[in-house]
Amino acid sequence: MNEIRLKAKAKINLGLDVLRKREDGYHEVRMIMQTVNLYDKITLRAARGSGIRLSVNLRYLPENMDNLAYRAAKLLMDEFSAAQGVEIELNKYIPVAAGLAGGSSDAAAVLVGMNKLFGLGLDAQGLMERGVKLGADVPFCVMRGTALAEGIGEKLTPLPPMPQCHILVAKPKIYVSTKFVYGNLKVAEIKKHPDIDGQIQALREGDLKSLAKRMGNVLESVTIPEYPVIQTLKETMLENGALNAMMSGSGPTVFGLFDQEQDAARAYELLKAGNDAKQIYLCRAQDT
Fold first, then answer.
1. How far, in Å, are 75, 104, 119 from residue 99 at the CA level?
2. Is 208 among the domain residues?
3. Which one of 38, 46, 50, 95 is most buried, by most CB atoms within 10 A?
4. pLDDT tens digits for 178-187?
5. Is 16 in the same domain as 137?
6. pLDDT tens-digit series, residues 217-235
7. What CATH number has the domain bearing residue 175?
8. CB pairs under 8 A, 24+ apart, for 49-56?
9. How far is CA 218 from the centre of its chain?
10. Total number of domains constituting the chain
11. Is 288 part of a structural domain of the chain?
12. Same domain, yes or no, for 275 and 198?
């Protein structure tokens, strides 16, 4: 095998709760993660020489150790003392710095691809254990599907698949720093926490409306006052038939869950015609 092609899929958070700030500076979280069919395309090729050569279709993204895809390849090459090099072609479609785990998913795909391309013999758990060294979301992006994430996001428990629906994803024309969001989160002052246990039960029962009703993201308490467009996007979706709408991760991307395709399509067209969102996608949940 000299070449392998992969899809690095985005994730959304159906619920995101922060329990406390740990002594090491990380935050203890409890989240429900969901893979969606919005993805980057990655091609890995065994190279004749040594080393890593990464090319990205977006000029403003790094093609060196500042890119998680590059670091994922280097992690495995260093561990297994690889003499043969690899070429990585990355075509980005997931919005960048958007709360959709695009970079983490790229890293996860490279780990999976390197393992297959060079016959390293690692199982999924082995890849996930290495992935957490690159970022808290990487293990989930290896596993995919629907999962409860705890700890800093690396402790994963698979959950029943999300009921099928139409997921509208919209990224506004702003950049939100994850460091800023968590740095300004006052955990002790959070008054309303998402009902993660209720969401787990809704997943077990296949109840989309109950799942949507219990959505919540405590990080919105930081981002919405600072960036009101996030609330505007939520309201647009809710006014056009979304069962609920919420910011994903640390933002700024907003997603809405729709049980009616025509409602999702109408909201999509409204957002496309407006100025609040820069990138807009209609998606579905994915099991893998």
1. 24, 10, 32
2. yes
3. 38
4. 999 999 999 9
5. yes
6. 999 999 999 999 999 999 9
7. 3.30.70.890
8. 49/85, 50/82, 50/83, 50/84, 50/85, 51/85, 52/77, 52/85, 52/86, 52/88, 53/85, 53/86, 53/87, 53/88, 54/87, 54/88, 54/90, 55/87, 55/88, 55/89, 55/90, 56/90, 56/91, 56/92
9. 17
10. 2
11. no
12. yes
What token pair was written down for 108? 């996860």
**Cα–Cα distance measured from residue 247 to residue 225, given in angstroms and rounded to the nearest whole number:** 13
- The three-state secondary structure class of 117 is helix
Q: Are 245 and 254 in contact (CB under 8 A)?
A: yes
C-alpha distances (whole Å) from 169 to each of 12, 38, 89, 95 are: 9, 9, 25, 10
**Same-domain check for residues 110 and 239:** no
pLDDT band for 266, please (50, 70, 90 cuts): very high
Could you tell me the pTM of the whole model? 0.95
Distance in angstroms (rounded) separating the CA atoms of residues 88 and 56: 8
Residue that terminates a domain, selected from 158, 192, 212: 158
Domain boundary among 158, 178, 212: 158
Strands 3-21 and 216-217, by their bridges, are: parallel
CA angle 107, 139, 145 (to 5 degrees): 105
Tokens (6 digits) for 160: 């029943």
Rounded Cα distance, 145 and 227, in Å: 30
Residue range(s) defining the domain that contains residue 216: 166-283
Phi first, then psi: what are they for 96, rounded to 5°?
A: -85, 140
Q: In this predicted model, what pLDDT tens digit does every residue of 20-45 receive, in sequence order?
A: 888 787 889 999 999 999 999 999 99
Please, which residues bridge with residue 30 across strands?
17, 150
Angle between helices 229-239 and 261-273 (to 10 degrees): 140
Q: What gap in Å lies between CA 246 and CA 251, rounded to an integer?
A: 10
Residue numbers annotated as active site: 11, 137
Which tens digit of pLDDT belongs to each residue from 101-126? 999 999 999 999 999 999 999 999 99
